[in-house]
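Methods — Computational structure assignment.
A single polypeptide chain was analysed. Its primary sequence is given first, followed by the predicted tertiary structure written as structure tokens.
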Amino acid sequence: MFKNLRLSTLVLLGAATLLVAGAALVIVAIQTSKNVSVVETSWKEYQVNRSEKARLESVLRASIGYGGMIHEFKNFILRQDASRIDLVQEHTGGARAVISQYSSLGTTAAEAVALQDILKVLEKYEAALFLARDLVGEGRSPEEVDAVVQFDDGPALRGLDILRREVETQLRVGDIEAGKGRIAATLRAEIGFGGMIHEFKNFVLRQDVALVETIRAKIKSAAAAIDSYQALGPTEAEKLALEDIRGMLDAYELALHKSEKLALEGRSASEIDAAVKVDDELALRGLAVIDKEIAYQAEESSREVTRSLARATNLLGIATWGTIVLVFVVTVTLSWTMRSMVIVPIQHMTHLMTRLATDRLDVKVPATRQKNEIGEMARALEVFRENAIKRRVAEAEIRLMTLKDGLTGVANRKRFDVRLHEIVQLCRRMDITAALLMIDLDGFKAVNDTLGHHAGDEVLKVAANRMLHVTREVDIVARLGGDEFAIILLGMDSPEDAEIPARRLIEDIERVTVVGDVEVKISASVGIRMLSPDDEDIDLIMRQADAAMYSVKRAGRGHYAFFGQKPLVEDSHEKLTAGLPQG
């Protein structure tokens, strides 16, 4: 009965008992209801705006983008001002520190790869900086220096895009989407590394007209980001900052137009740069102001949660003592009801918020069936928890997909390399033996040539399934590429133990495969390399297994051979043509 009772109804019941107590309880109930709603909303907003990964991603873009490493690096080449070397190194060091902090937060597989790619590109820029310094010292022109030190920024740009996608995926809290912080990050992306300033400096250095449309598109996208930010209701400080940034974009658009004309006149990069130089100070200050405002607003959300909880607790205390003075019975009843319906649930929800914020998803959210404010908060928390669980499961599935061959479903080359290394270590540690089978499908090329790649894919799937059929769950079946497979057999005490599955494999592969209405017959050449406790060199093991397999192919195919032994193939004429379609 009381579980689903709303606070306003509870107040009316108290007022009917005692007018003064009822009036006091009405005020308390209204304020408490507001505070409960503020706690729910503010907490969700805080989770979005206070995300450490989101903040670090934005800081990383600032360190290497507009006003950062790439900006000063290009300016050094153009203006050959030695003081900019220290600025480039300072921003590069800052970016490295940000990457280190990001890694310490715990990363997904995609984030880890992205951070490594960005770090590698930063290392290239560090090397390019010193090379550019030496070339400038030799009196080389900006064009000559740029031609020597330029390289592909693609890995870092892809890495930043991956970080953005990962952060935006993680920032979805209930029904509140990412706001100013994400738009600011988008703005930095459009004008920073890989964005407007990067391509503009490249155009001045290289006079490549193909870059002009790219630069204009980046300026347009940056302006759209500013419009989106303004739509969220900026503060006065943010409005001024956005005006400064928009003014910078307008200045660069004019500079681009002027640069095109000067490039057509054959002017040098230094001359063009001197003629179109734009003062970036106001825009950089504007970006810094926006960062500070976003941080302040996130902290304000945190403080609002604390204030709301404090107000709710204080109001309940006042109501309790006031009611004790007026009517003891009413006081006891209302105190018990308020505590059970508001204080304890809020404290419980706060505890759950803390656990969920630390990614502890094994919690049970109570009160989701209640038809009141607590129930609404509980349902919002449950949605957040379910989304986090789905994200974790999806990330696990993605990691698993990277270890499987997309066509056949068996292990891929990456997974095979890891397992082979583990098996070799196991053999050494446990003093046991195993067997490595390298398999090549004979006649597969003929299937592709005569029936097409779709038929070839079907044959590969059937062959992989047959390999799984003749192996055990503890064994490893992998597709290394094309029609080349490998199997690791565990617990093979002698070569004779490995011969049995090898023969079964060859026999199963040679069975007719029906593709559509056409019968196809292929065979398999198998090279076997026994793994012993003395093995260490993985590459040598692979080469020896390959050598055994190729000895079978040279001898006639469709059989097996151990490394160092002559293949047992007598008459192979039929198996040389085994891959041709029959029927």
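Note: Confidence is low (pLDDT under 50) at residues 173-177, 570-583.
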